[in-house]
Structure formats: structure tokens, C-alpha cells
Write a structure and sequence with these properties.
Helix content is about 25%, strand content about 30%. The protein is an alpha/beta fold. The protein has 2 domains: about 240 residues, Alpha-Beta Barrel (TIM Barrel); about 200 residues, no CATH class. The strands form 5 sheets. Strands 1, 2, 3, 4, 5, 14, 15, 16 and 17 form a 9-stranded mixed beta sheet that branches. Strands 20-19-18-22-21-24-23-25-26 form a 9-stranded mixed beta sheet. A 5-stranded parallel beta sheet has the order 6-7-8-9-10. The longest helix has 17 residues. It is globular.
């Protein structure tokens, strides 16, 4: 990027950039001070200079370190890594700790390598964690399996910091050999945890095995217990899972070194409407957290947790990742520098996205359409007692409920009057024909179907609908477009968002992807779904490591007991 028009400087100087007259945040003392910052070769080299190739007068504007997302799945943005960078850098994010287990579940180590290659040389520092649970449990079919050897290989790659979220917490607690081996190869490096609702001795056993962070807290009591147990708490505010308001009382000057911010899963609509980590910092400040504390929790503290000792501060030798704020309390981002180069200004990226040319990440949807069926035989009964998933609006935990459903033509069918519709997960990696069938309450669908190849974490095709015909139409469209999200009604596709890269991402810009996503949401609303983020909610109904009841291509999973269970309850009583 070229020097800004109107800047002045000495081309013979060893200093590339001098930011003059800024209110600089010292994250070590928690204070602002007024001065200059000199940058050379992407690093901060001093607090003043006699000359520089480029001089920018900030006229007393606030200057703070670039923000760090402590845990994110880039794939959940629905954007390629370079398009993701174009979306978040204008919001002040200059570094992310990414867990690529979404694409790893589809493509294995090749998917992780794709993410590393796609982030090489872009103006966003992207570090990765080696996926620990691919698949996340033995109760689902993924496109790949990462064992101890594959994890060890990925850990040897550049920009891979440690072991990604250890979701199989029952396996950790039971001391299962495969997960114990992965923890062993990552010993001495950062290990991310994932232990929703874990407490007491089971929590102690889990923490003793090696995890040092957790982003699954939903209550203040849970977060405080995990903090006492030695876990860093990552306050998450994604698209579906929104825990910021509940957990903010945990953050103060004493706990700030151990409390960070993350988005985990934030889709294109949320990124466009709400922003990224700046959204969390802004809201924390508005809730009464001192700006100096909130910013430190998004900069120096996560950098230290993940061993990034040249990130997160405006100090000598640190990377020149800097944000110029036009207003501190509203955290209004004016300019963003990455390695001392202006990467974004006035809300716009100042770099282009690289074109998507890697063919091996395409054509990943393999469904046996000839055998596709969502029929659930009822026998000779006129009604059946079943267990169903029940969803809420702002979390990914699903309850288990018991309902009685009608049977028509020897088949158990949806009952929109009870807000109960059929749910299915279709294996889409090997065309095995495996389909798990169940029911879900809380989507609000009065007609039609919603389908997606974004279905954490194995990312099979998940579909919910009021009738089998629309469910089949939706899944067939997913196969035709190479993955994505679809709304079908009355035998027709009424909205679609193609995500051809591993069935998870698009190489189009944020604005275009978000527009299609918004059209999907509006179409779902017309079918009766009133959830804040219908497809984000749908995507988590297949994740068998989040309590309490989930559905995979292998069937219903009782997460609390960690076993497959029957959909039918009346068989148990007879």
C-alpha cells in the first residue's frame, strides 16, 4: 500500500511511519499518555523520531493496539479467509486465534492446510489451533478423522499454536486413550477447552488433563467456578450463542488478565450488522467496564495466553498493529494499521481479496439422492410418543422434551400446531445413505423446510421441515449448488445461499453473502420461524458435545449420557 497523499517525510530515514500526537494506551499500566509512535519494518521502534518516510498527525486521537479474537471459526463467517479479513480488519481486528475444525471435518489436514495457505501474506495475523476432535464424537460421520499422528503433524506447521477446543470432555474425564494421546502431544502448548456446564470434580479432572481456556460458559456462576479452577474465560458473543451480557460482571481490573473476548461463530449477517470484537469491547465499555480494562482484555491478555509475545501492546519491539479511534467510549474505529501499513480506513478495507483457485476444496457434497427418504415408520399405531429436541433463542444448548405426534399412512409426521417439525441429518461426505431422523420444537415453522450443509461439527446436511417433500427438495438443492443453505416451500426452492467451498464458505464479498443470508432469514420468517438466527440455530442441532439432546446422521444422541438413544419413548414403556 502506498504512502497516504499529503503525508511528509524523509525518504532517507530508517523510520517508515511516524504517528504524531496520539493519546496512546499503555496496556501495562492501564493509562493513556500523549506522544508519538515510530514504526520500522512493521515493528514499533520508538516514541518519536527526527524524520520518517511517512508522518501522520493524529491531532490527539486515541491510539490503541489491534484487537485479538481469542477463539474463532473463520468458516462460520461463511467467507473465505481473505474475505473474512476484509470484513473484520476495518473493525480493528488485527489478529485471530482460529480453530479450523469445521473445514477439517470435511477435508482433514488438507482443509487445515488450505486455511493456512489462504491466510499467508494477508493483512491479518491468523494463527491456528490443531483440531482435537475430528469428528467431535463417535456418534457422527465426518469427512475425515484426525488421530494422534495427524494432530502431531499439524502442530508442527508454522502459525499453529496449540491444540484446538477439546470438545470430547466425557472422553477426557474417562481417560480415553485417543484423546489422552492428543493432549500428550500438545503438552506445553496452549490447549483450548470446551466444557459446557462442567462442574465440581468432573471439571477438576478435565482441567488437570491440560485445557486452559473455556468459551462455553453461559452463567456467571459457571464462569467463576471455571476461573477458580484455573481456566481462562473467553466471553463469547457469536450469532447464536450470546453470553456477553451474562458474563460481563466477571470482568474487572483484577480478572482482566484471565478474561478475554471471542466470537466463536459469527455469520455474515452478524458481522455486517454488529461488527466483530469491537462490538464486544464497545458494549463492555457501555456496561461500565473501564475502556483501558476492556481493551486490554481484547489485546495484551489473549496475546499472553496464546504465547504471542510480540502482539497486543504499543511498546518497543511489538508488531505495529494499531487502531486510531475517533472516539474512545463508543470505540469508533477510524484507521487500522497492520504491521505498520494502513489496512483499513473509515470502515473500508484497503486491500483486495485473492481469488479462489484451490479446486480440492470444491465439490464436497456427496449425497445418495436415489435413496433419500425421511420416512419414519410408525407401525400400526395412530400416534407415537417421541423424544424431541427443544431449541432456545440465544444459546446452543437444546433440551429434551417428550411429545405425542400423529401418524399418517404408517408414518410419524410433523405437527406444526405443537411447533414440532421433523428434523433429519443426511450424511454428505461418502454418499453412504445414512440418515438420522428426529423431531425439534421451537423453530416455529408452519410450512416448508430449511436445509444447510453447515451443521456443526461433522457438517453433514441438516434439514428441518413440515413435510418430507419440501425436505427432499431442499437437500437436493444443496447437492446441486455444492453446499450452502436453502429454504423450500410447496415443492420449490424459494431462497438459497451457495457455499461451495467445503460446503461452508463463499468467495464473494461480505455484502453479497450477507444479502443472500438476509434473504434466507426473511424466507424462513415467512414460513413462521421467528428465531433471531434460524440457520445458525439449525447448524448446532447436530453437535453431539453440547447438552442435552442432539441429532446426527447416526441418530439421536443423549449428550448427558453420551450414547445413542431411540426416538420412540413408547417402545420403552411397552
Amino acid at each position: 500500500m502506498s504512502r497516504r497523499e499529503g503525508s511528509t517525510g524523509d525518504p532517507r530515514s530508517d523510520v517508515d511511519l511516524l504517528l504524531r500526537d496520539a493519546q496512546i494506551l499503555d496496556v501495562f499500566s492501564g493509562e493513556f499518555w500523549r506522544g508519538d509512535v515510530a514504526v520500522a519494518a512493521g515493528r514499533i521502534v520508538g516514541f518519536g523520531a527526527a524524520a520518517a518516510r511517512e508522518i501522520r498527525d493524529l491531532n490527539g486521537a486515541w491510539l490503541v493496539p489491534g484487537l485479538i479474537d481469542a477463539h474463532v471459526h473463520i468458516e462460520s463467517s461463511q467467507l473465505t479467509p481473505t474475505q473474512f479479513a476484509r470484513a473484520v480488519v476495518p473493525h480493528g481486528t488485527t489478529c485471530v486465534i482460529a480453530d479450523p475444525h469445521e473445514i477439517a471435518n470435511v477435508l482433514g489436514p488438507d482443509g487445515v492446510r488450505y486455511m493456512l495457505d489462504a491466510t499467508d501474506g494477508i493483512p491479518l495475523h491468523a494463527y491456528f489451533m490443531a483440531p482435537s476432535c475430528v469428528p467431535s464424537s463417535p456418534f457422527e460421520t465426518s469427512g475425515a478423522t484426525l488421530g494422534e499422528d495427524e494432530v502431531a503433524e499439524i502442530l508442527s506447521w508454522e502459525r499453529v499454536l496449540g491444540l484446538g477446543e477439546v470438545m470430547n470432555y466425557p472422553g477426557v474425564i474417562r481417560g480415553e486413550p485417543d484423546i489422552a494421546a492428543k493432549l500428550a502431544v500438545a503438552r506445553g502448548r496452549p490447549i483450548d477447552g470446551h466444557a459446557p456446564g462442567l462442574s465440581g470434580r468432573r471439571l477438576w479432572t478435565y482441567v488437570a488433563a491440560g485445557p486452559r481456556t473455556d468459551h462455553e460458559c453461559t452463567t456467571l456462576e459457571e464462569a467463576r467456578e471455571k476461573l477458580r479452577a484455573g481456566l481462562r474465560i473467553l466471553i463469547r458473543e457469536g450469532t447464536t450463542a450470546r453470553n456477553l451480557d451474562a458474563l460481563l460482571p466477571l470482568l474487572d481490573e483484577r480478572t482482566a488478565p484471565f478474561v478475554h473476548f471471542c466470537t466463536d461463530d459469527r455469520d455474515s449477517e452478524s458481522l455486517l450488522a454488529e461488527g466483530h470484537i469491537d462490538d464486544l469491547v464497545r458494549r463492555a465499555i457501555a456496561a461500565g467496564v473501564r475502556p483501558e480494562v476492556a481493551i486490554a482484555s481484547a489485546t495484551i491478555h489473549p496475546a499472553r495466553t496464546y504465547g504471542l509475545f510480540d502482539h497486543g501492546a504499543i511498546a518497543l519491539g511489538y508488531r505495529a498493529d494499531l487502531i486510531v479511534l475517533s472516539d474512545l467510549r463508543s470505540f469508533a474505529v477510524r484507521e487500522v494499521y497492520v504491521d505498520g501499513i494502513l489496512a483499513a480506513g473509515d470502515g473500508r478495507p484497503l486491500f483486495e481479496a485473492s481469488p479462489e483457485t484451490d479446486r480440492h476444496v470444491l465439490d464436497t457434497v456427496c449425497v445418495d439422492l436415489a435413496r433419500l427418504s425421511f420416512r419414519l415408520d410408525s407401525g400400526v399405531r395412530t400416534e407415537r410418543r417421541v423424544r424431541a429436541l427443544a431449541v432456545g433463542g440465544d444459546h446452543v444448548i437444546t433440551d429434551a422434551v417428550e411429545v405425542t405426534l400423529p401418524c399418517v399412512g404408517g408414518e410419524v409426521v410433523s405437527d406444526p400446531e405443537q411447533d414440532i417439525v421433523k428434523l433429519a441429518v443426511v450424511e454428505r461426505h461418502k454418499a453412504s445413505g445414512a440418515v438420522g431422523i428426529g423431531f425439534v420444537r421451537g423453530l416455529g415453522l408452519a410450512s416448508g423446510a430449511l436445509a444447510s450443509t453447515v451443521a456443526h461439527d461433522a457438517h453433514n446436511a441438516i434439514v428441518a421441515g413440515t413435510c418430507d417433500e419440501d425436505m427432499c427438495v431442499a437437500v437436493r438443492e444443496l447437492a446441486r449448488i455444492g453446499g450452502g443453505q436453502v429454504v423450500a416451500e410447496a415443492g420449490n426452492v424459494v431462497a438459497r445461499l451457495p457455499l461451495p467451498i467445503a460446503g461452508l464458505m463463499s468467495d464473494r464479498p461480505l455484502s453479497e453473502v450477507a444479502a443472500d443470508s438476509k434473504e434466507l432469514t426473511q424466507a424462513a420468517r415467512r414460513l413462521g420461524c421467528s428465531l433471531p438466527a434460524p440457520f445458525a440455530t439449525l447448524s448446532f442441532l447436530a453437535l453431539p458435545v453440547i447438552p442435552h439432546l442432539k441429532l446426527t446422521d447416526q441418530g439421536l444422541v443423549d449428550v448427558d449420557e453420551f450414547r445413542l438413544v431411540s426416538c420412540f419413548l413408547d417402545d420403552l414403556a411397552s
